[in-house]
Amino acid sequence: MIALPPPYADIHAIVSILCILPTFCLYGAIMRLVFWHTQQDYHTPFYKLFVVGTCIAAIITTSTYFTGHILGAPMFLPLVEVLPHSGPFPTFFLCLLYYGIYAGELINCALAFNRFSIVILKHNYRDWWNRHLKQFVAVVLIFPFVFLWIFLISTNRIYIFDDNNPSMGYHLSNFDYPIWASKQKSMIAVYAFTGISSIIMNTTTLTFLIKKQKTSKRISYANDDASPKNVRFFLYIMLTFVAEYSNDNLPLRHMHKPIFVHCTSVCIRICYTWATVVSICYQPGPPKRCIRPLLE
């Protein structure tokens, strides 16, 4: 996390929570639609994967808010000073943060494959996913644990960012780990696999949709996730992919501009929220049409 000088850190923390709270409300609405709504349109492989994604997104949001805002914003400093700065407490939040990162990349790739599979499986889509959905979910939820052992052999600490300026807040990181156990290597491997495969699958799906749009007068916006022409579901995947790319690359290119980095992260949160809204709307149109399924 790049430290912001006060009072920008406090403002960013407040703006972020204002974006996070409505997003969490949307997550709850989505879970209600999938698990407790009587309409069968929402009991499909795409929506079940999407619910897994919202749970992972909640983990990422909680851990990043702790590491980036609670530790970094001056208004939280009295709380941070009484928290344990070493031992199981920082280890737990590091594991939570990186579990969410790895699982988030995998679930986004799985959702991209879900849309891509309609193109290659066609009428076999529903049966294939009903047979293999549990395996996909298991891989997404279990595989990230493979990389978390790095933090069990490291010294994990919450440390002050600048001893001469305590108002700059605290950071959380791991130290004293073997060179061969660097978390950067595992992150590069996961990002390379999920990023390249998602680009290929999203490009193929987009090409298919463009061809269908030219040959068909009507593009599907229905809730049926087996429809190969469902633009709305694909739009969600693309918004998520763009947000992930921006979140992972823009901060690295502008490390010397902390204000830019943090403004970008707020825009990314808004992008995630809009992607969530898109995914649960019946179809593009008036706002009351979009929120109708949430109120039923």
TrEMBL record:
Gene Ontology terms describing biological process: sensory perception of chemical stimulus
Membrane spanning stretches: 12-35, 47-71, 91-116, 136-160, 188-210
Record carries keyword Endoplasmic reticulum: no
Compartment annotation: Membrane
Broad class of the protein's primary localization: membrane
Alphabetically ordered keywords of this record: Membrane, Transmembrane, Transmembrane helix
GO CC, any one term: membrane
InterPro entries in the record: 7TM_GPCR_serpentine_rcpt_Srg, Nematode_SR-like
Membrane topology: Multi-pass membrane protein
Family of this protein: Belongs to the nematode receptor-like protein srg family.
PANTHER family in the record: G_PROTEIN_RECEP_F1_2 DOMAIN-CONTAINING PROTEIN-RELATED, SERPENTINE RECEPTOR CLASS GAMMA-RELATED
Protein name per its UniProtKB record: Serpentine receptor class gamma
Annotated organism of origin: Panagrellus redivivus (Microworm)
